[in-house]
Write a structure and sequence with these properties.
Elements (H helix, E strand, L loop, with lengths): L12 H10 L5 H9 L22 H14 L3 H10 L1 H6 L12 H17 L1
């Protein structure tokens, strides 16, 4: 897998409009996006990926869903389903409303890799 940074990390306008209209009081996912926006981007993870190969998923989006997963106490399967089905998760991850998300097994791999790298960097 290689990293192909997303061209823009802004929430698509339709996603933002629908998320705000359907959740006027906000949700944890909306709060996370509004408070942590810009904390990390795909380029922050560039050293984790080889330069060639099939494009991988956005590591910034995976980091965001891992934060939400921890805050909401979700399993990998529940978190992946939330990405696929919940408008507020799509908002938090700056996804189009019709984005299908990803398979739940990706989260386990991403968390394992990130924990391993943190240990190596210490």
């Amino acid at each position: 897998m290689s990293l192909r940074p997303r061209s823009g990390e802004h929430v698509p306008p339709l996603t933002a409009r629908v998320a705000r209209a359907s959740n006027p009081g906000g949700t944890t996912a909306i709060w996370v996006r509004n408070r942590l926006d810009g904390l990390w981007c795909d380029e922050d993870f560039a050293d984790w990926y080889p330069r060639d190969g099939r494009p991988g998923l956005s590591p910034a989006q995976l980091a965001t869903v891992c934060v939400l997963q921890f805050l909401l106490g979700l399993s990998d399967r529940q978190a992946a389903e939330a990405v696929r089905c919940r408008i507020d998760f799509k908002y938090a991850m700056a996804m189009e409303l019709d984005d299908p998300g990803f398979h739940h097994s990706v989260l386990g791999s991403f968390v394992w890799i990130s924990r391993s790298l943190v240990r190596v960097c210490r």
